Each structure stands twice: as C-alpha cells, then as structure tokens.
Amino acid sequence: MKTKIYEVKTIAEAKELAIKDFGVSEENFEINILKETKGFLGIGGKLEVEVKVITNGVAKAKEYIQMILNTNGIEGFIEKKEREGSVEFSIDAGEYNGYLIGKNSRNLIALQTLVSIIVNNYCEKDEIKTVLVDVGGYKKRREKNIESMAVEYGKQVARTKHPVRLDGLNAYERKIIHNKLSSWKDVKTYSEGEEPNRILVIEAK
Fold first, then answer.
1. For residue 195, what are the CA distances in angstroms to 6, 167, 203?
2. Mean pLDDT, to the nearest integer, of 152-174?
3. Are residues 68 and 123 in the same domain?
4. Which residue in 14, 141, 163, 191 is deepest, having the highest Cβ count within 10 Å?
C-alpha cells in the first residue's frame, strides 16, 4: 500500500498533502507521528509524519461495480479472484449482461478501465495489478473465437502469401491475435492507423 513521509508544521498540512499526492480522501489513510521537533518558545516546530493508505483497492473496486449495478437497478452477482499480480472480476447480471457489455464491448472496456484505475490508485508502483473485468463469460468466449480466427487467417496468409487486414477490433482483441501468432515462423502481425480506426495486419514473412 502507498506510504509517504512528510515533514510539516501541522497534521492538517500532512492531510492536505496526502490527499493531493495519493488522490484519495482522508478516510482512506492513517497518519502516524514519527518525530516531533519543538521550535523556540513553541514557534517553528515541525512534525515528521508517516501517511499510509489503508484502504484495499480491490475491495473498493468491487464496491464501485456494485454501486453501478445498484444505480441502474440491476441485480447481479460479482465474483472476485485474486492471483499474484492480478485480479479478475466476473459479473453475471442475467438479462442485463448485454447492457453492461455494450456495442463492440465498449461499455465493458470502459468499466474495466475505471476498475483498473481504482484498484491501482491504492497501490505502490511495484504493486500494480493487472485487472480483468468480464461479464457473463463474454471475454472468455470472445477470446476463444478470436484465437480461432487468428489461426484460420494465419494459415490462409501462410498458404496464399496475401496479407489479411482486420478492422473493427479493439486493442484487447488485437493483442490476442498478436500473441496467438507471435510464435509462427511464416507470418507476422502488426497494427497500423489511429484509434478508433486502427487495423491489424497479418502478413507473410
């Protein structure tokens, strides 16, 4: 968790600095006085204080997802799985899964981005976690479909020597294809263009 030491005149000053540096509200951290130096005639004294974030970012992120469901009147189940360096949130909201995923999975991508920011906002740089948010198993199914597509197009390009250009994929989906074909000896992949019109190319080596 994030920890920082300040040399200040008052506890209030330390709180203001911590809120600015950590980007979290006061209830999310604790302050401990490490050293107190009294000034001449009580003037000019200084405090050395340690400010430590005590809120668990993963728990905070789950609360955020639940808040989104509650705000939209959606009853859903949220499952959390933590592994070393990563955390996965699986949401099942029944008939509302499609709403949470959105067209071209835009809502799901936006939700994952926000949840990732929340989780890692409470972590030190060396504690940064990879965050995955899935709804109704959509990402797992989509990943399998994209991997199958990558193999088919990879074989086609290797056979015909004609490149294939794929549009309509988001960055996560392009990464799946890059990873799937990265070890192939007869084809290569790269992306060109700018978002949101970036294109993935599968080309013979």
1. 42, 11, 21
2. 93
3. yes
4. 14
For position 2, what pLDDT does the model report? Answer: 86
Dump pLDDT digits (tens) for 128-139. Answer: 999 999 999 999
Total tally of structural domains belonging to the chain: 3
Sheet containing strand 77-83, edge to edge, reads: 77-83, 86-92, 130-135
pLDDT at position 1 is: 75
The three-state secondary structure class of 122 is coil
CATH of residue 161? 3.30.1370.50
With pLDDT > 70 as the criterion, what percentage of the chain qualifies?
97
Q: Which domain holds residue 170?
A: 145-204
**Which tokens belong to 76?**
């859903």
DSSP conformational letter for 47 = E
- Whether residues 70 and 130 share a domain: the answer is yes
Q: Where are the alpha helices (DSSP H) in 23-130?
A: 57-71, 97-101, 106-121
Dist CA 34 CA 134 (whole Å): 44
